[in-house]
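Protein entry
_____________
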Amino acid sequence: MKKLFLLPLSLYSIFSFAQDPYLNNTLVNTSDLRGTSRFVAMGGAMGALGADISTISANPAGIAMFTKNDMSFTAGASWLGNNSARGMASGTQGHFDQIGALACFKGNGSIRNFNLAVNYQKKIDYNNCFYGEIATQASWADQLDGLAAEAFDNRGYLYGRPDTYYNTLYGLADGCGLFNDNIVKSPHDLNSTLSITRGSLSACDINFSANVDNRYFFGVTLGIDNMDFRRGTDYWEQRTDALGDIHDFGYINEQVITGTGFNFKFGAIVRPFETSPFRIGVTVETPTWYRLKYVDDQSLTTKYYWDEKQQQLIYDPAQGVYYDHYVYDLSDSYINYLEYRLNTPWKVRAQMGSTISNNFAWGVEYEFANYPGTTMRYPSEYGGTHFDEDFKFMTKTMLLPQHTLRAGVEFKPVSNLSLRLGYNYITSTTGKDSYWDPYYSDNSLSYPTGLDYMNLSDTHIIACGAGYRYKSFYLDLAYKYRHQSAEYYPFDSFYSNVDMSPLPLDLTRHSLTATLGVRF
């Protein structure tokens, strides 16, 4: 990647901000399978089975299944699968997944026990990197020029913001010559993108749960999230003219989003038949209410050859004449900053599970998350915040509800050894024909800070693992294979009148984790 923050800052804007549904969905979509190695190996289908610290978020009532104190720690490593030249960057990354502790207290009468638990867990790993080249006659400049033309009113001002033109991506592009017709209309023969994402979304869950008559289990979990998202995107286009001179421009965009949020999970597990271990569970998870800070650093550089006397490009194909020419090398940059609030959708989970002769256990789970219901509030210039109606409309238009099916089994060939297998199917929140149109405008989405987007496929996760118990200690291992593909678009080619093929990405990822714990 070219060096970021290379250019001197010329403008600082607190309004030139665009937060699109694609980016917010990346920030909060917890579609991966994470937790203790036992939880992962069983596909996370333990909401009704309980007695694992990771059920603190899957179903808080599962913590009430513990009858002893427990402490556990999980760490592992991940690596990417099929790393093609047009796909993801390779490399193995170590990661810390979970650390938790639980205290079990004996009750009286119908209350057999009540438990307190705390668990720190990584929810999303943002670490990612890809590079790709797209062969197309479309240009990023065409898209931006078309958007800018629609964004101005009859006074020549951007709608609602008469004095902030040069504090926008439109003004940045204009000042660097991208709206010169000869530059914009010239087809570019190379479009390349390098994107590096770092950071994670982690959570500290605090749980209280109770066991009533060993048949009814109830729990509530307070989740406190911490977000640290950092992405750098380096986009370049170039073409070679008849003299062999290279005309190009590059756009570097660095985004940093940090903040905290909180939510509540309410869960219940019931054994409907007194003589049967079969149980059913249900979990309701509130939205996570985030308070976030967004910083966006954008820089643009252009280089093109021009004959000032003739006011045209260096080569006139009609006359077949070359002119004396000058190289224009322009650059500009600015920073966006905004504090805003983001509310994720409600989630509902339904679970079933049972054991057979203490040697076999199974669980299944269904989850519904209404991601089109994600909402956003932005600061008012008079104090307080406003609900963002346009963001709500865009989110409903561009995103889909997510359905997740989890299943898992555990078998004990001997008393202290367990073998496990799990599977997840997770639907995508973006359709194959979805696209990001930054033309939509209001106070918090007035101007785009980026034009790229990615449409994800459905996700399949296969996991397996084993566990060994020795007295009070236990060691669990898990392997996870996560398969997902994506189509990356550096921009929508509507204004170029060209059907641009996306960059295909293989997001397949492998991981190994180990959990060390003690129960006493």
Residues 140-151 form the longest helix (12 residues). Residues 191 and 505 are 16 Å apart (CA to CA).
